[in-house]
Amino acid sequence: MKIDASLIYPFIILIVTIIAAIAAFWSNVQSNRQLNRMEEYDSLNLKLGKEIKYLSDINNQISTRIDTIVAENRSLTQHNIQLTNKANELIEEVEKLTTTSNELIKKASAENALTGILDFQYDKPLEDSETLIVRAGGVEVGNNVRSLKSNNPPGYISIGGRDLIPIKIVDGKLKVSITIYDIYGNLIVEIENNVWYRYANNSGKFNYDSKGFEVVDNQGLTALSINLDSRTEVSIEGYFYDRKTGNIYIYGGNRFQAIPIFRPAKNIIEKIEKANIRQMFEYSGNNWIGKRRTE
User: Fold this and answer.
1) Range of the domain at 151
2) Does any domain span residue 291?
3) From the CA atom positions of the chain, what is the Rg in Å?
4) What is the DSSP code string of 8-21?
5) Residue 60 CA to chain centroid, in angstroms?
6) Confidence band for 11, pLDDT divided at 50, 70 and 90
7) Rounded distance, CA 275 to CA 268, Å?
8) In degrees rounded to 5, what are phi and psi of residue 266?
9) What pLDDT does 222 receive?
10) Which residues are bridge partners to 74 per DSSP?
11) For residue range 193-224, what is the model confidence (pLDDT) as tens digits?
12) How far apart are CA 155 and CA 150, in angstroms?
């Protein structure tokens, strides 16, 4: 049987049309889906962008806070350094003030001391073969060191024909003993084996160092000045009030004289002043303990 092609064409065209319509519909469906997905993606991207911006803002805030904290910490560190430096400066000042205070206390204590030790300092102990020379008012006494040792009777410095100042050697050092009164018979100072005791009410000022000792009475007169001139030489100047003979013996430089105690005080003072008894130390200004005169 023979089929007419003209009858088949409409069906073919219909089928193709239907297929095309289906394809167009499907394509439209897919296109809509893609569009919806794109809208979802855009929405998600927008939301993600907002989240990223939010997180970025937070990060910026955190960074800003960190910078602030770092700056504050740096400022605090610098402040702490300044405080530490200031504290160290204050500590140094306190130490200086403490040192100054101790020096003033020591100075005040030294200037008002009532007792001490006459410490003749030698480079080495005196030897038995050496001769110790002691001078007082033109009187010179030389003694062999061996004869002056502590197990022997002491040697003496004679003043006015009397043995008034005993001396001896102990452990290679000179030891002196002497009692000094002012012109009125008031006890000024006692020295016993180089340990001195000062009577503040009767003495004006006193001074000493490692080589000598000096005391001035209330009239400003040098009552006693004893000095280690060299390793084996000692000199003594001043005046000696002797109750037993009733005389005041003045020994200044190379001069010696005796004055009766019962003369007027004014006359005695004049005689002592004219004797030019040396004054080794300073007694004015600051820190004069141990300070010698430069004249």
Assistant:
1) 115-274
2) no
3) 56
4) HHHHHHHHHHHHHH
5) 55
6) low
7) 11
8) -60, -40
9) 92
10) none
11) 889 888 877 777 888 888 899 999 988 899 99
12) 10
